[in-house]
Write a structure and sequence with these properties.
Layout (H helix, E strand, L loop, with lengths): L5 E5 L4 H10 L4 E6 L2 H8 L5 E5 L5 H11 L6 E4 L14 H29 L2 E5 L12 H21 L5 E7 L5 H10 L11 H13 L8 E4 L10
Parallel strand pairs: 1-2, 1-4, 2-3, 4-5, 5-6, 6-7
């Protein structure tokens, strides 16, 4: 077994998740998560030490099977980077729209963390949840996304206190708008032109995740807010 810390990153094939994997690859053993097995396999080929975790996070049975197949003895870090935008005006959203967004942004986070607890406890590991500025301030339209991120924030707060006696740290990272495929989708919904230069780089968020994972054992980064700096013209 590798002596390097083992980190599982969901949503690791693109966007923020991919940037996190790129950042950690030099000194961590990666487990790259994603829904599409081919995309996950291709992502793993980018790194010297990586293995796949291919599962639809909305399928509880599939997630449990995928965790069992990993056969983890220890897990030093679990980074929940997979997320669903779920944009739409309140009057247009169905119950299924709400359910789909919460399945990915809240339920999957809770369930995968639960399944990984024995391996996290063995390593005194760290759980990092990629939240959003929308988990701090809610604006419409798009309330379903904000509601799911507020719920994820409450979940991380509760997990942090409940898992502390087991030696597990829990951090919540709240980026502002980031130059990813999700941002392109959001700009389209808002009827705006997309320009990556207006937004945070995924690599900047990855730096905050590394800080949470590698903090000295006496410290826990409870919540990190990463906002666009002067070089980004968009302040959302």
């Amino acid at each position: 077994m590798s002596e390097r810390p083992v980190i599982l990153v969901t949503g690791g094939t693109r966007g923020i998740g991919r940037a996190i994997c790129d950042d950690l690859a030099s000194d961590h053993e990666l487990i790259v998560g994603g829904t599409d097995p081919a995309a996950v396999a291709a992502a793993c080929e980018r790194y010297a030490s990586a293995r796949p975790f291919a599962a639809d996070l909305t399928d509880a049975d599939a997630v449990e099977r995928a965790v069992d197949e990993l056969g983890l003895e220890r897990l030093d870090g679990l980074v929940h980077s997979a997320g669903l935008l779920g944009s739409g005006a309140f009057r247009d959203l169905s119950r299924e729209d709400w359910r789909r967004t919460f399945e990915v942004n809240v339920f999957a986070v809770a369930d995968l963390t639960r399944l990984a607890l024995p391996a996290l406890e063995e390593a005194s590991g760290t759980v990092v949840v990629i939240n959003s500025g929308s988990g701090l301030t809610a604006n419409g339209p798009g309330g379903v996304y904000s509601a799911s991120k507020f719920a994820a924030r409450a979940l991380t707060d509760a997990m942090r206190e409940e898992l502390r006696p087991a030696g597990i740290r829990v951090s919540s990272v709240h980026p502002g708008r980031v130059a990813t495929d999700m941002q392109i989708e959001l700009n389209d919904f808002e009827g705006r032109e997309y320009d990556a230069e207006n937004y945070l780089r995924p690599e900047s968020v990855a730096g905050a995740v590394r800080a949470a994972l590698t903090a000295s054992p006496d410290a826990n980064l409870d919540m990190v807010s990463v906002r666009p700096g002067p070089a980004a013209t968009n302040r959302a």
